Amino acid sequence: MNSVIPLIKKETLEDFLTARGVFSLIVASVVLSAFSILLVSNIELSLLDNAQAVYLMVSIILALASLVAIIQGSDGFAGERDRATLETLMLTPMTGQGLAAAKLIAMLFSWLILFVLCIPYLWAVGSTGQNLWAAVEYLSLMGTLLVLIFGGLALTLSAKVKSFRGVLSIGLTVFLFSGSPVLLGPALRQSAVGQMIDLINPFADALNTLDSVVIDSQGISFQVIRLTIMICYALGVLWVLYTATKRVEL
Amino acid sequence: MNTIEVHGVKKEFGEKLVLNDISLVVHKQDIYGFLGPNGSGKTTTLRILLGLLQQDEGGVRVLGMNPVSAGVSLRRRVNALPESHGLYGWMSSQTYLKFFAQMYGVTLTPQNCTYRLQQVGLSPNDARPINTFSRGMKQSLGIARAMINDPEVLFLDEPTSGFDPRGRREIHDLLLKLNQEKGVTIVLSTHILDDVERLCNRIAILDRGKVRYEGRLALTDRNQPSRYRFHIQKGSQIPSSWSYPGISLMERKDSWVTCLIDGVSPAQAIKTLVEGGLAIIEAEALSDTIEDLYLTYTTRGADE
To answer: Rounded to two decimals, what is the model's pTM?
Structure first.
């Protein structure tokens, strides 16, 4: 456990002191700024209901958080392997599971920082309307679960697939695959098949939960099924990660 | 108890047999050198000894433990300098050492950090990021990291590559001091024969995944294996099957054979060969430099 803390510290610092970390923060700020300005100043978008605008923002934030988690997860083992730094880490008295735990916790720290960075943008878009704080609360929960699911999955792949690019392309494909049903038309999404796809898709679950909370002002009792599914996904990914990192090879 | 024992280790990567029945022993406080050309299996052997790779067949014990199953408890007692230095370019040398000290649970005071950096010839006040360092400086820092937990066994892959002659000499002195004063067993893999001659007391020469030679490096020791060339009378036949105890055939020509004599005196060897039908007219002791050994065992495999 003593080795986990310095590794978390190193991973977190790496996210801010390296070009990669600074780049992802700048990209997040630019994307959020652009959407905030559009939602506030664009004639058509500014006609959106305030709750709709908040919902759009939190959706974008969740997509960003998932993408960052996939990139960081892919880098976890495979990136270190590519940079030839994994060997020295594996020489330390730390198990593969310890390394994975530290990297996952560091990913959650990154998400926390992105979350804090998002609050002023959300406030700028939704301060005059209702459900802003409910949106923030649920965003923190949904974001954490999505980071665990997508980040954990990418980290698992990273422990097994040898190249960063390989893991990243698989991770992004999975993410696009899980995000694509959200783009289906309303009629298809209302059908039994559409509802089923929505229910088993963790990204759609997160968006539908936020839709329910922010736009429809529904309470926790309406969210139980989707939350349970997401928690099951997160636990499943953690278990797979635990198993996959019992033995990490170069 | 031997510090390292390797018996019949085989390792394949896909179809390629990288290690073929490797066996060797490293005693406590040895400085043991792995020699061999690129692709001979040196790095793979080191990785197996460190538990970073699992062998397909055979047994490995390091400090009495199986490197793979012992895992953390072994890694607390050993350390290594991999071929790639494994440095984080964005860190400074001090941050890097402190990070690894924490990973090993070692308390590194500022004085101790300064001492360790100076020990490998680095300035403790250099706050530049590591990616601005020269190759030799990176190598020095890697060596400082490898010693951070005061290991009982230190594995070094090409430890002096990138150093100028003075830097190489300083690293030699440091490793000899570690070995003699602290009793650290050192296993090093290198191409640089000067490293081997200055540091190692035992060596293994690997070629195409096999140990071609393993033994002490005291080449002038009469009790140790030595090479002789026996000149044969013209017209005399060299037996096609070679099975003389203690005498290994290394090279054969029409008028002479080169043999490695191990465990028997040259006189006994000559007697055995003559009784075996070889018409020896002259015996020539070959001077065995490390370079001779290396060239003999790597250019012409001992089993060929």
So the answer is: 0.82
